[in-house]
Write a structure and sequence with these properties.
- Strands 1-2-6-3-7-17 form a six-stranded mixed β-sheet, sandwiched between helices. A four-stranded antiparallel β-sheet has the order 11-13-9-14, with helices on one face.
- The protein is α+β, with helices and mostly antiparallel strands and 458 residues long.
- The protein has two domains: 2-195 and 366-457, Aminopeptidase (3-Layer(aba) Sandwich); 197-251 and 297-364, Alpha-Beta Plaits (2-Layer Sandwich), CATH 3.30.70.
- The chain is globular, with a radius of gyration of 24 Å.
- Helices cover 36% and strands 21% of the residues.
- The two termini are 21 Å apart.
- Helix 1 packs antiparallel against helix 15 (435-457), helix 2 crosses helix 4 (117-136) and helix 5 (158-166) runs parallel beside helix 14 (402-410).
- Bound molecules: ligand BES and zinc ion.
């Protein structure tokens, strides 16, 4: 193992150069014009894996290609692990808020700034470098590895969902490893054993068949914007709980052990509020901020539109109003069951004076892997070793819906070994990745395979 770690240390500057090369592809999956850039990024990572001697295929889909690379020779006597990542990135807009252009990586104060740096190119490239260190030093891996790098994660992984069941044998594994998430700090690394799920929908309220003069008609009919606001207000109570009958029915209770683990993560409420730019924090009564943002279900309004948005005023009763909503779910809530309950509640809240329409959006199941189990314990050891600090356990509020599909089709649990820091700005302007997290993440990735292999064998 020391040869592997020495190799990583000796190649640190090349690792940074390679990350910058990867970050130069504007692989924005949400924007059609970038399809060639997605393919170029896929080609780059595929040839990187092929160069290490892995059996690598670029699988065509009706969307962006999926890269699968397997270590050779495949030894059936050894366990097999799947490393998942995504080469697509979120749109960089608004450009004017970036200090330097999003696809021209800039190194400053020990960070690399670029769209996709933490989410997710830097994190899965760290895993590739770790495997490279094994290969180049002639150190045998104690397991078989399969890399699965897709290009549609940021737009719902559509084609990966059909690819999985069709390629069960190719992707068969004992466990999945994902580094597409965060840690509290470099001195408090933490393994993520749970993710929230999600239900997305759009609600629209239609009133008069055109915008009306608010002086001539106002007061004689329902204002759709007002109706929508009161419907939305009816979805949450004064204690910060979602007022949808049945919403909390399936929520798994947080165990004492989990709450104790979570409480070990240092947290300063004033600093957190300052980081967010809000005067004070709030949320569901009876839970800490970290519990609220990772282990409790929530409802958010993501977008709200009605009436005149241009300069100056326009005195109208708008014809319609609409809102984009997402609910984050926790184990064991079921997206379809929750969605049905939300639809019922929306209909109940809607006055008879307007017409309500609801459009279902994407959904994803919440995820949990037993924190006391052998896989998680092995992951914790690798994380502690890589970061040089005791790794803690945490839940994460974001969603990676594909992990439930891994469980369903591959019958494999997923370990989430994040490398991203809380101020990395994924999905925001000036996204960054800490070079120290990158280095430590590579060490963790190298230490991981012996730990996981031993855990699976025992
Ligand atoms: N990597 C993130 C999700 C994430 C971030 C998980 C931090 C854990 C910690 C991923 O790229 C993402 O943004 N997912 C979306 C999924 C959604 C669109 C279904 C999310 O969580 O909003
Ligand atoms: Zn993302």
């Amino acid at each position: 193992m020391s040869a592997v770690l020495d190799h990583l240390a000796a190649n640190a500057s090349r690792h940074v150069d390679e990350l910058c090369a990867y970050l130069r592809f504007p692989s924005v999956s949400a924007q059609e014009k970038h399809a060639p850039d997605l393919r170029a990024a896929a080609d780059w990572v595929a040839s990187r894996l092929r160069g290490l001697g892995l059996d690598t295929t670029l699988h065509e889909t009706a969307g962006h290609p999926i890269v699968v690379a397997r270590t050779l020779p495949h030894d059936p006597a050894k366990p097999t692990f799947l490393v998942y990542g995504h080469y697509d990135v979120q749109p960089p807009e608004p450009f004017e808020l970036w200090k330097t252009p999003p696809f021209e990586p800039r190194i400053e104060d020990g960070n690399v700034y670029a769209r996709g740096s933490c989410d997710n190119k830097g994190q899965h490239l760290a895993h590739i470098h770790a495997v490279e260190a094994y290969v180049r030093t002639g150190t045998p891996l104690p397991c078989n590895l399969t890399f699965l790098i897709e290009g549609e994660e940021e737009v719902g992984s559509t084609h990966l969902y059909s690819f999985l069941p069709a390629h069960k044998d190719l992707l068969a594994c004992d466990a999945v490893v994902i580094s597409d998430n965060g840690i509290p700090s470099l001195t408090h690394p933490a393994l993520t054993y749970a993710l929230r799920g999600i239900v997305a929908l759009e609600v629209r309220v239609d009133g008069p068949d055109r915008d009306l003069h608010s002086g001539l008609f106002g007061g004689s009919l329902e204002n759709p914007a007002f109706a929508l606001c009161s419907i939305l207000a009816g979805l949450k109570d004064s204690k910060g709980r979602v007022s949808v009958p049945g919403f909390y029915d399936d929520v798994a209770k947080l165990s004492k052990y989990e709450r104790a683990q979570m409480a070990k993560i240092p947290f300063n409420e004033r600093r957190y509020a300052k980081f967010l730019g809000v005067p004070q924090v709030t949320g569901e009564a009876g839970f800490t901020t970290n519990e609220r943002r990772t282990a409790r279900p929530t409802m958010e309004i993501n977008g709200l539109t009605s009436g005149y948005q241009g300069q100056g005023s326009k005195t109208i009763v708008p014809s319609w109003a609409s809102a984009k909503l997402t609910f984050r779910l926790v184990p064991n809530q079921k997206p379809s069951r929750v969605l049905a309950a939300i639809r019922r509640r929306l209909k109940e809240l809607c006055p008879p004076t307007v017409r309500l329409s609801i459009t279902d959006g994407h959904g994803g199941e919440p995820y949990l892997v037993a924190p006391e189990g052998p896989l998680v314990q092995a992951g914790l050891k690798a994380m502690s070793g890589g970061f040089g600090r005791e790794a803690l356990l945490m839940r994460e509020g974001g969603s990676i819906p594909i992990v439930s599909a891994f469980r369903k089709h591959l019958k494999a649990d997923t370990l989430l070994l994040g490398m991203s820091l809380p101020d990395d700005n994924p999905h925001s302007p000036n996204e960054k990745f800490s070079l120290e997290a990158y280095t430590k993440g590579m060490r963790m990735a190298a230490l991981l395979w012996p730990e996981l292999s031993a855990a699976v064998r025992s």
